[in-house]
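lol ok so funny story. i was supposed to be doing the assay writeup but got distracted and ended up predicting the structure for this chain instead. priorities right. anyway since i did it might as well share w the group, maybe its usefull for someone
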Amino acid sequence: MKYIVAILQPDRLDDILERLTGQEIHLVTVSTVLGRGRQKGIAEVYRSHKESGSLLKKVKLEIAVNEQFVAAAITAITDGGRTGKIGDGKIFVLDLHECIRIRTGETGPVAIG
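and the output, tada:
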């Protein structure tokens, strides 16, 4: 079992979700987050004042998958999220030691669904 966390551009989310659905990956959690990368944000002009935008709006996608879906999930996220420009995002793949479905008490890979 793996836990995939991806930080992405908000405008790429619909395409990524569509691609994940095409790979039979339906169970996702999406959060709106703020963050910055190597560029440390951007500077914007607002009402003739230069504003330092140190934190940018991003989307965090979290997916728990069984081993056979890891490669498909990563491909769907990278293909849907890639624009080729700075700030496309990052994907983190973590080991998931346990998963428990609260309603039934099922554990392990069967609890992921």
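The radius of gyration is 17 Å. The chain has one domain: 2-112.
back to the writeup now i swear
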